[in-house]
Amino acid sequence: MQEYENRVTVRKPSMGARTGYFFLSLAPVAACVVLQVICVFVVLVGALVLALLKTPIDYTDIAAVEAMYMEVALGSAPAGMLAYHVVGTLVFGIWYYFSFRRPRPRLLDSIRKLNLKNLIITVVCGVGLCFFANGTVCIEAVLMPEIVEDYIEMAETAGLGTNVLTIVASVVLAPIGEEFICRGLAQKYAKKCFGRFWIANLLQALLFGLIHMNWVQGIYAFAIGLVLGWLVERYDTILPAILLHCVVNFSSTVWVGYVLGPVPMNLVSGLILVIVPSVLIGGMLIWGGKKKV
Predict the structure, then answer these.
(1) What DSSP assignment string belongs to 176-195?
(2) According to the model, what pLDDT value does residue 230 have?
(3) How many whole angstroms from its chain centre is CA 112?
(4) Nearest to 89 by CA among 169, 205, 188, 163
């Protein structure tokens, strides 16, 4: 009697479908930029109207008008970013939910994957990546000092890391929304397009760096994005990536500055802060192992 093996034929997507998936991988990032501009603009206009109602000014006095605009713009920036993160988390969360084919993964199943080992890997990598990011800034300060100085001045002017609204947005909402965008949507569509995880991971990490809209954050965000993408692929859920992202942002926003305050911005300190965490993170990823099939 002749025996036959049951074989499952996996159909590769057509060139048209792959092209569609490629543009879909870019769409969440494009949508996030547009949504951010809209939210910041709406909040700014509202703040300007309230300011004019409260304190009318002489429109012929150009200096006074410019001063009022700058004051309102800087004062409303944290509220504008908070508004974007609230709206973005909802929009991209819904998009992420409906992008899955049925049956969709259950939240409880994803939570069960966060066992003690996975939590240790996630938290240690998160803290390590925070020090890694500061190391890259030290190196950037040597290689492109003017860009770093401009970024620091911009951050101080906008009150990044000091305003309560920006802390809530960066530590709680940004990790959720950005994981929906980059690892939940962009990485998924890119993997369908290219068929290989490593290419999809490179693309989503590049997009993750681009959405920060500056060289200083963009460079280390690319490296962080690679680790976040690995976590999503390894555990087949974005929850570890969200947790790691929260740890990175919390560390960089709340406490790591006190630890690294005295550290000089030079090449030696930068290399130490890059190499040591990289070795630690590499060890954690090896300990995490390959994806279980």
Answers:
(1) HHHIIIIIIIIHHHHHHHHS
(2) 93
(3) 24
(4) 169
Element at 225 (helix H, strand E): helix 215-235
Q: Are 285 and 227 in contact (CB under 8 A)?
A: yes
- Continuous H helices in 55-115: 62-99, 107-112
Report which DSSP code applies to 5.
-
Mean pLDDT in residue range 196-202: 95
Q: How far is CA 262 from CA 134, 259, 276, in A?
A: 13, 8, 18
CA dist., res. 114 & res. 101, Å (int): 23
Residue with the two structure tokens 């150009």: 62
Is pLDDT at 217 greater than 60 in this prediction?
A: yes
DSSP annotation of 262: T
Q: Look up the pTM and report it.
A: 0.87
Q: What residues contact residue 22 under an 8 Å CB cut-off, 6+ apart?
A: 189, 190, 193
**pLDDT tens string 255-265:** 776 667 777 77
Angle, helices 239-250 vs 215-235, to 10°: value is: 150
Task: Please provide the size of the chain in residues.
Answer: 293
CA distance 84 to 222: 22
CA-based nearest residue to 78, from 179, 172, 161: 161
Give dist(CA 77, CA 59) in Å, integer. 23
Predicted confidence (pLDDT) at residue 251 exceeds the cutoff of 50: yes
The residue assigned the tokens 């006074």 is 64
Q: Pick from 143, 163, 165, 141: which is nearest to 152 by CA?
A: 141
CB neighbours (10 Å) of residue 166?
22
Report which DSSP code applies to 8. -
